[in-house]
Design a protein that fits this description.
The protein has 16 helices and 20 strands. The protein is α/β, with parallel strands linked by helices and 468 residues long. The protein has three domains: 192 residues, FAD/NAD(P)-binding domain (3-Layer(bba) Sandwich), CATH 3.50.50.60; 106 residues; 96 residues, Polyamine Oxidase, Chain A, domain 2.
């Protein structure tokens, strides 16, 4: 470690963990501070009523190479599993269960059979959906073959409507992917981000969209392993330390003379000095920290807004869901996951987690109101639930789970570099190209580390080699 190449990472989520590991691997002296008493940021577990529960159902795709690489680095990749082939069981009240399953054909033909057999749409709607899929593939390319970004001043829903996709098609097919990936329905989500999700996850290669699951609690996959990895890399980790103010030290124009971070830890008020600081906290918190130094550009981060996620945790006295997860159509239930094994529920019981993305109405509903709405909805989808007893019903809410992936968000997402040398940004809200995902967070951490290392005169390729 080089004592005169000090990098301070503010924030212990995926972006901060990644950045700190990269900086330490490249030879910088790295310190990470986190206001919580744990690592992992928005991906964490908690104990409630004797069960280990995750705050949300964080899935990933086979194409999420950066996130999967981080898990290998944390030596917890054995606790996740990726489908051999994309399969999404889809349930609809009063209808037979269906499965959207890809074939082994080259993309996008791997989806042709799934759409052709998708009984929640009429034959005419299936043909229209297939034609819209082909149009979506062409959206990102000009006649010359050069890449063109989908417009960020319109919604994915508006584009789909122009290509013959009505509310039924969108609800039964397109929002199965758009809503959980963007944390907004297609009617509200950015076309630019929506096009990216479908192109990258489903239209670029045959197996890119195979879904990955966490088979253990998130704290066992991310938080605990990250603490061990950071310690092994020589990163000094300070938990329970709240950054409250940033100050830039005076220096030559265009050069970094260091940054002071004033905060509060177990020993009271404290100041930490660094040659480069990576701010890897949620964008609203980042705006408050950065505005005194950066002015309007930092204040503009508030324009990204936020979108909530609500999770319902339901324990039944018997198994009611046959599959490991399922999507819902024609029901308020979006996705439901069997988390029994990961949470070690009592013998004979089944713990289901219902994930509700873009859940603005549900954020304002009481627990009793949510119970009254969703237990009957689950019973409509799952016949076995009708005779089962509900042992436990809990609700967790993330009011600012992600930035709002609406039109115009792209122009508000900054890169890692700021106008102040040595001050660097990281987080899934930065301009990674991805929506707010596990993959985007890790990619932002790598980009921030490269920028911070350059500011302290360390060759970034050393960190990239360590992360590979």
């Amino acid at each position: 470690m080089s004592a005169d190449r000090r990098v301070l990472v503010v924030g212990g989520g995926l972006a901060g963990i990644t950045a700190a590991l990269d900086c330490a691997a490249a030879g910088a002296s790295a310190t990470l501070v986190e206001v919580r008493r744990r690592l992992g940021g928005a991906a964490y577990s908690f104990q409630r009523e004797g069960l280990q529960m995750d705050n949300g159902q964080h899935v990933f795709l086979r194409c999420c190479g950066a996130y999967r690489g981080l898990l290998r680095r944390l030596e917890s990749d054995h606790l996740v599993a990726v489908q051999e082939r994309l399969e999404i069981p889809v349930l609809k009240p009063g209808a037979a269960p269906l499965t959207l399953r890809r074939s082994g054909l080259p993309a996008p033909l791997q989806l042709a059979g799934a759409i052709a057999r998708y009984g929640h749409l009429t034959r005419r709607q299936r043909l229209s959906a297939a034609l819209a899929t082909l149009a979506l593939m062409r959206l990102g390319r000009s006649r010359s073959g050069r890449r063109e970004l989908a417009r960020d001043d319109q919604t994915l829903g508006q584009w789909l409507a122009r290509h013959g996709q009505g509310p039924e098609e969108v609800a039964a097919l397109w929002d199965l992917i758009a809503l959980p990936a963007l944390n907004l329905p297609a009617a509200q989500a950015s076309l630019e981000l929506g096009e990216f999700v479908f192109r990258t996850g489903l239209l670029s290669s045959t197996d890119a969209g195979d879904i990955g699951f966490h088979r253990a609690p998130l704290s066992d996959i991310i938080g605990g392993p990250a603490a061990r990895a950071l310690d092994g890399a020589g990163v000094h980790v300070r938990l329970g330390w709240r950054a409250e103010r940033l100050l830039a030290a005076a220096g030559a124009p265009g050069a970094s003379a260091g940054i002071e971070v004033h905060g509060r830890g177990a020993d009271g008020d404290e100041r930490l000095d660094a040659d480069s600081v990576i701010v890897a906290v949620p964008h609203m918190r980042a705006a408050a920290l950065l505005e005194p130094l950066l002015g309007a550009p930092a204040a503009g981060l508030r324009g990204l807004g936020s979108s909530p996620i609500v999770n319902l945790h339901v324990v039944y006295d018997r198994p009611v869901l046959q599959d490991s997860f399922a999507a819902g159509v024609g029901t308020p239930v979006q996705y439901v996951f069997d988390r029994s094994t990961a949470s070690a529920v009592p013998a004979g019981c089944q713990y289901l987690a219902v994930s509700l993305s873009g859940a603005e109405p549900e954020m304002h509903m009481s627990v009793d109101a949510l119970r009254e709405r969703y237990l009957p909805a689950l019973a409509q989808l799952l016949p076995r639930a009708r005779a089962a007893e509900v042992v436990s019903f809990l609700v967790t809410r993330e009011h600012a789970a992600t930035f709002r992936a609406a039109p115009g968000a792209g122009a508000l997402r900054p890169g890692p570099e700021t106008q102040l040398p040595g001050l660097v940004l990281a987080g899934a809200w930065t301009d990674t190209g991805w929506p707010a995902t596990l993959e985007g967070a890790v990619l932002s951490g790598h980009a921030a580390a490269r920028q911070a290392l350059a500011a302290v005169g360390v060759h970034a390729h050393r960190a990239l080699g360590a992360a590979a």
